[in-house]
## 1
Amino acid sequence: MDSRQITQEQQPWLLENGDPKRLTKEARHGHGRSRNVHNLSTSSLRKRSGYTLLSKDNRACLQTVLVNIQEVILGTKLSILFSAIPAAILAHYFGLGRLAIRGFVALFKAKDCLFEAWIFILSLLGLTPLAERVSFLTEQIAFFTGPTVGGLLNATCGNITELIIAIFALSNNQIAVVKYSLLGSILSNLLLVLGTSLLCGGIANLGVEQKYDRRQADVNSLMLLLALLCHSLPLLFTYSAASPELTVEPTLYLSRTASIVMLGAYVVYLVFQLWTHRQFFEAEDVWQFLEAEDEGLGENNEAEEEAVIGFWSAFAWLAGMTVFIAWLSEYVVDTIEDASDSWGLSVSFLSIILLPIVGNAAEHAGAIIFAFKNKLDISLGVALGSATQIAMFVVPLCVIVAWIMGVKMDLNFNILETGSLALAIIVTAFTLQDGTSHYLKGLILLLCYFVIGACFFVQRTPINHNDVPNFTLKLVTDSVLST
């Protein structure tokens, strides 16, 4: 008998406690939903397990380990990228990157920073499957804890890669890298991911009028506008005094106060999303789509979802994944300046454009795939939800963490960065105001992203002098007003 035809009851080793957790069709429409759009976006890159690693050995412990490896490591189409993790570690500790390209260096007289750039790109590739697997593991835990706790866990871990990279950058006092990477994550979600989704979805569904639930878009747009206000005021406050030096400390206090307000607003947003108005974020056609998908895969047309690993296994894997994310994030932070020198690209371009694209590739690909299937509610939920989470949770949390660490990080992202953020939020809000979509809207968002990317590509601001543009603009403004 084929292993996929054997029921969970006949295979108690699939879960530690032998009690598989299922989510039925009725539970989806009640309060038992444990999957949200973030989980659904990455699920498109997962592979159904045939338990190919299993042998005829009946030892339950060994079979449990094999099932865990099968589901967690091999259960994604990005599994080949896991090889980049040991490669980055070995390159860092044993200099294998130096050995691999020593001949290249000798031939072309390359700089020594090329070695660090090698570690930088391997670390980025290794972070890609780790970010996707974190989403999968939070979904598995949600089967046991319930949808509310699962939603809270996902809200915390959804952008854990960006948060860990930011914390390591703060520990190295690289405030500019923190600001650039978080800004880039917001811009890539609003313009690149959403734009590509609307463009691909519009082209793939030319004969169909694409619609989505405006309520979710309106809520996220309001949250993003609040975040924009909290980012703009410290910048404007800098120009309100006769000298920028007089506003350094007040700007820092204002930023910390605004960060506390943003975190409080994010908590209310979670209550709104997970309890009081959860119907705004769970469009009915999405769950009908999942039911149809499950009915096509189920043997008896019974739409059921099951946890494929146990609670403690999922928790242990999640902790392990977090450790490796932290490990690779440290490599990224330590080598980003060397990669910048090696490739001739500014640190701002690498942080704003490259880091978010690679770090969230799985989530981005999932959003685009669902747009192809005319499921824009999922695509919008991924893009807008991630942007809101970063702007209202990760950024202010970094300010508070920096405060605790004694690092003076504020919400002043400089005039160019704040202006790019403002235009991205406003353009996105206008794009989503009517509840319908077509490919032209996606194209406009993509073009906006390309222009912003080109701007940071030609920018050459020193990494340790991130306030230079503000002081320059201030001097120019003063000279104009004095004439």
## 2
Amino acid sequence: MIDAMQHLNIDYHFQEEIDDFLWKEYVIYSNSGDGFGHHDLHQIALHFRLFRQQGHYVPPEVFNKFIDKRGKFNQRLCGNMKGIRDLYEASHLSIAGEDILDEAEQFSKQVLKERLLGDCFDNHEAKLIRNTLQHPSHKSLAMLTGREFFGDFHSMNNGWLGSFKDFAKIDFSLQQHLHQQEILQISRWWTELGLGNELKYARNQPLKWYMWSLACLTDPTLSEERVELTKAISFIYIIDDTFDVYGSLQELTMFTEVVSRWDIEASEQLPDSMKICFKALYNLNNEISTKIYTKHGFNPTHSLRKAWESLCKAFLVEAEWFGCGNIPSGEEYLKNGIISSGVHIVLVHIFFLLGQRLTQHNVEIIDRSPMIISSAAKILRLWDDLGTAKDENQEGNDGSYVYCLLMEHQDMSLKRAREEVMSMISDAWKNLNQECLFQKSFQTTFTKACLNLARMVPLIYNYDNKRYIQDYINSLISDPVIM
């Protein structure tokens, strides 16, 4: 039932009941002395995933019973497609050093792909397998992919499941109406701000900016936070375009100095477009800081200003590299690229907007861009750099890790470089899992936002299918719910 609720994106309504139930189940498991006490791959893999998602550690050795003498998963499991799908799902909750889960992912993925190539299953099973491969639960956003699972449950003759589907349909429609209202607020703000007319070179994509906020903060009660976060995200894109396609190196250096000083008078020396951009950023930062202080009693001005300063300095480094034809090492590029991804800006705003555990200690941790933030940033940067095309409105050149890698290692093929990047993304996910699932410094709402940002990345940067994210936007905002 919990698995179905999560896939249908209605689990947040029953979170207290889910928490209580999984804790009781985990206590039973912990006190059993012999693990799960049975050899049902489906049950073990499902419990493993649900427990880990809940922050309850289960060792990967629970899968040892499915390993043969060669240290590989037993081939006799291949006929248990339900178990194989759950094993694949479970493997995505791995952390560093868990080789058995790496083996589980490779084994289950191969079995599922071979099954798809065969002709011994019906269309329903093929859809189940494709959805599992394309949208593993832990690395997907249920609000975007949930409706793809309606058909998965269609053939199951189960009373409570039918009720869940009906409930999910109503819930989706209510959320759709809320999203439409939030988009109207953002559109009015963007129109009144006037930057779309003033800064002709900048991307004008308020709906795309909003999708990041909606992905990170999925709880319907966080409507105000989503709107404020979207405003901040818009300036990441605007400033990125200022550095990529507008300013000269001298002008960009001046702009970065003004942001570092956070001096409205010093901005008068800037070109008109940069002056307008900085003043709008300055005002927005003050507005958001005031709202956070009024609601949560903590003034985030210093942290937000330092975050914008770091972003501009990272953009300037890239402008100096590629404007002068200098190619950094892969390590240098990635270290800077983690900052220029803008992820720290997004997550530091979320941290303060949520107002949870606003201690000086946690603020100092957030300011240093800890692993929970840098891992998500690395996933975004590397995914973006794997893209085969630029944003359709982006004319600038800000490099890529793949290109730096190829220049640094002249004998490396493009295929090998891409494989290296995919391996690094996998490692970054393991670090993110470690921080989000088993570290308790931050509240669940914040850690979920970090996970959700990483989950959103493949959708935004799916350059092979430019309409991919637009289809999801339409499904969330305007398409009727059909089950």
## 3
Amino acid sequence: MKLAQNNSEKIIWDSMRSPSQGKPFPKLLFWLILSITATYVVYTIKLLSFNHTSCDVDIITNRHFPVLKLANVTVSSPQNPTKLRQIRQEIPEKNKTTLDHIVFGIASSAKLWDKRKEYIKLWWKPRMRGIVWLDSPVKTYENETGTLPQLKISGDTSHFLYKNKKGHRSAIRISRIVSETLKLGEMDNVRWFVMGDDDTFFVTDNLNIYFSYGMAYGGAGFAISYPLAKALEKVQDRCIQRYPGLYGSDDRMQACMAELGVPLTRELGFHQNDVYGNLFGLLAAHPVTPLVSIHHLDVVEPIFPNVTQIQALQQLKIPMQLDSAGLMQQSICYERTKGWTVSVSWGFAIQIFRGVLSPREIEMPSRTFLNWYKRADYTAYAFNTRPVMRNPCLKPFVFYLSRARMESHTNQTVSLYTRYRDAVPHPVCKWKIADPGDVDRVEVYKKPDLHLWDRSPRRNCCRVLSSKKESMVIDVGVCEEGEISEV
């Protein structure tokens, strides 16, 4: 059999090589190549047509790509953010996501409602859609109509197992908020569900920046696309029963997402703030991403000094309404004649350092806060930090926002920052460098940039326009070609 097979193969091979058998072969080869070419051309035309007519829109509107965005982490199909920003500019306005496409689900409790509702009033707008989910009824007032979302009572979760000794079973109730909101079936044209705690302040206009593109911490806010919410609602109750030992609601959400096979992608604009104390170091070196939320307002100091937390957030709303995309975005520049380093966190604070410090150092948050366990353990943070300057000459001079306005004839914002003088004065410095202690105020000019986040992420540049003994004037804007932060 083996010999016969070899002879058969030899005959076929010889016949293909033989001149006497070669005449029909070129014709066969010709028609074969022609058929393959025609198929390739037809397939290519269909592929290009498909990509231009449906794929781009589906990425933006998330009809086919379920996406979950959780606090510092986002669940999504793997897409290139830069490419999506490019696509976004080409999508018709009617397909862009706005607040009208978003529904909020806020977790609260009757015990804390009277205090926490004041945080919600600061960012809630009457045209928004959303529900506050409580564990029991609370007293309502007619004069609060329109200043708060609708109130509802969460469903009974007593039949679910909960075995974590350090946690609280309310985590089960909170983890079901998105599913319960979806089950109401009263809202049309929903693309995203956003969930957060009642002690979270949202910069709602910046949510659209994320949602125009096609283990998590739930309190700072997470967002689930409508298709993913539907998939979650079908399996969540069964999933919750499989994880009775988990601590919080965010643990349970992530566990159920893992079962659905949806991966996580980090989103830095949601600030979980699992820290205590002063957030200055974190916010003054805000990452190059839109500020979306600030969480745990009850356990951190007000972001502006000598005021209450509510008053501090009201102060933040002034620049937020002028240019939400640029809020707290850091710029770094130098006062060359005096040898100073200047860090601008627009709409929040300015720091002036003696000497020349590298941008790499200044863009790293200084440790003005303690970790969640209230210890000075600097290995317990989920981000890089730098020590507070111990050299007395390197202690920064801080200027907080005092007021801001829009200059109509130039179409730019003008914000004023005044010197903060704490109880501990700056120590004497013997460096032969000009003393920033004489500066009382800094004025900053900046044009709102509607396309700031349509481009690849990059810090804005700042330029010192004038520097007098008691004041300084700075311009902040898009970096010019070849412009970098250098002395």
